[in-house]
Structures are given as structure tokens and as C-alpha cells.
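User: Can you recover a sequence for this backbone? Please restate the input before giving your answer.

Assistant: Of course. Working from this structure:
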């Protein structure tokens, strides 16, 4: 009976982690570029009570007798499902359709990746810098910060569906600036390490970033200017998952209560 106490306790801990994950998803239902997370569970060790050769009357048993020792949360997987496009008044808002991610130069000089394309223009000493909300530079296809001529009118800068930037000449005809917003893919995007602010960094599980501008064997993504990608959290699904996790937690709690009652009755047999 002691096994049931510990098994139920592991179930309660695992379901608490599931509720934490679901709560985080619900909290980010309106976060631009947020990707929903889901819990993965795995069973713990099994204890063998009887082997296949154990028999009660001399007959060999065809199967052994094992009992599980509970469950644990094995991983929290990010689901990179496409989010809805939301129209934005920001001229430098970009939404990705496809598997690509934007590149961001972080404060420590590293590279982070994100689906949050709600960018802005900041005035720097070398021109107009395309940055995220935290002022971190957005990278082009060469992995360098995107900088426009300081004499440009920011509202006149446009981008094509493949991320190439244009600026009108004196006749109003858009001319290419030979600057293209960078997009990267990963063989296993769920393996990216989450860093908050809807940003991810490369890890051993994700593999190396694949530059869409130079790769030839991948499906290229497209960008839409004037739109942001909304969170892909399905609120109805999260509420259902929350109820399931709550009921599982209650069931494990009831198993502990039942085991405690049985142990109490066993202790009273001598009375």
C-alpha cells in the first residue's frame, strides 16, 4: 500500500506541472508570436512482483507480474502551429507564414529567434535601425543588423512577401534597397531553448539554424507587412485540458486518501 501513496504523489506532482503549463498558455493567449506548450508524461520504474517462472501449482506462468511506481513530466513541448494574422497599424509589423523565424541580435552579442515580428524603427548614429520592442536589432539574411539610410522617411519603406525592402525614388517607384529580412528554420524547432519574450535560442536538440536565403531544399516562408502573428493558443482546448488535469489531480488525491484509510484499518486489526 505504501507504493500507492508514492505513485499517487507523483501523479499529483505531474498534474500540477500540467496545470502550470496550461496556465502559462492561457496567460499568453494574446501574446504576439507566442507558441503553445504541452506536457509530455512518462511512466517511472516498474517493480517485478513475480517472474514468469513463478507458479502456484507447478504450472509456469506465461507472463510476469509487474507494478508501476508512478509518473513524471518528461518534457514540455512547444507546438509551432501557425497563428492567425492580425492587422496592425505599425508599418514595421511583420507576420511569417511558414516555418521561418526572425533573427534578433541580443544584448550579449548572441542570436535569438522569434515569431514576434512587431518591430520598430529606432534612430541610431549610423541610420535607422530595425529593432524589436526591446531595442534589439533585427537581422538580415547575412546575419547583420538591418540599418536604413538616415535620410529615409520610415513610413515610405515597404517590404515584399519575400522580405526584401524597397524605397520609392523621386518618381514614386519602389526601388530595392538590397536589404532582405532574415528568416531561419530548424530541423527540430521544438528543441529550441525558450528564453522568454517569445524568443528562442539554438540548442543541441534543435540543430543548427537553416538560413532560408541560402538553403535550397526547404519550403521558403513568406512575410506580410502590416500584420502580426497572434498566439496559436486554442483557449477552448486549454480549458478542456485544464479540467482533465484537475480531475486527474483529484483522482490521485483520492488514491492517497483511500490508501490512508486502508492502512488505518489494517492498524486497527489488533484492537
Amino acid at each position: 500500500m505504501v507504493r500507492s501513496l508514492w505513485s499517487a504523489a507523483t501523479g499529483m506532482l505531474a498534474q500540477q506541472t500540467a496545470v502550470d503549463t496550461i496556465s502559462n498558455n492561457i496567460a499568453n493567449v494574446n501574446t504576439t508570436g507566442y507558441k503553445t506548450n504541452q506536457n509530455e508524461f512518462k511512466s517511472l520504474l516498474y517493480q517485478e512482483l513475480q517472474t514468469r517462472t513463478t507458479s502456484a501449482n507447478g504450472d509456469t506462468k506465461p507472463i510476469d507480474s509487474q507494478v508501476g511506481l508512478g509518473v513524471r513530466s518528461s518534457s514540455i513541448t512547444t507546438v509551432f502551429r501557425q497563428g492567425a494574422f492580425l492587422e496592425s497599424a505599425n508599418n514595421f509589423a511583420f507576420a511569417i507564414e511558414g516555418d521561418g523565424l526572425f533573427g534578433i541580435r541580443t544584448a550579449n552579442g548572441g542570436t535569438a529567434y522569434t515569431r514576434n515580428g512587431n518591430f520598430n524603427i529606432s534612430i541610431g548614429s549610423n541610420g535607422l535601425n530595425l529593432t524589436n520592442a526591446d531595442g534589439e536589432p533585427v537581422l538580415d539574411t547575412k546575419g547583420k543588423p538591418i540599418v536604413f539610410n538616415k535620410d529615409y522617411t520610415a513610413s515610405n519603406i515597404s517590404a515584399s512577401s519575400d522580405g526584401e525592402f524597397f524605397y520609392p525614388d523621386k518618381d514614386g517607384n519602389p526601388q530595392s534597397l538590397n536589404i532582405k529580412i532574415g528568416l531561419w528554420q530548424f530541423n527540430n524547432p521544438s528543441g529550441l531553448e525558450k528564453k522568454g519574450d517569445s524568443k528562442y535560442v539554438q540548442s543541441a536538440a534543435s540543430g543548427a539554424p537553416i538560413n532560408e536565403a541560402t538553403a535550397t531544399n526547404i519550403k521558403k516562408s513568406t512575410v506580410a507587412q502590416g500584420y502580426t502573428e497572434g498566439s496559436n493558443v486554442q483557449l477552448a482546448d486549454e480549458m478542456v485540458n485544464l479540467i482533465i488535469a484537475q480531475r486527474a489531480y483529484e483522482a490521485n488525491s483520492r488514491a492517497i486518501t483511500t490508501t490512508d484509510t486502508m492502512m488505518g484499518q489494517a492498524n486497527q486489526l489488533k484492537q
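That completes the design. The helical segments are 2-27, 235-267.
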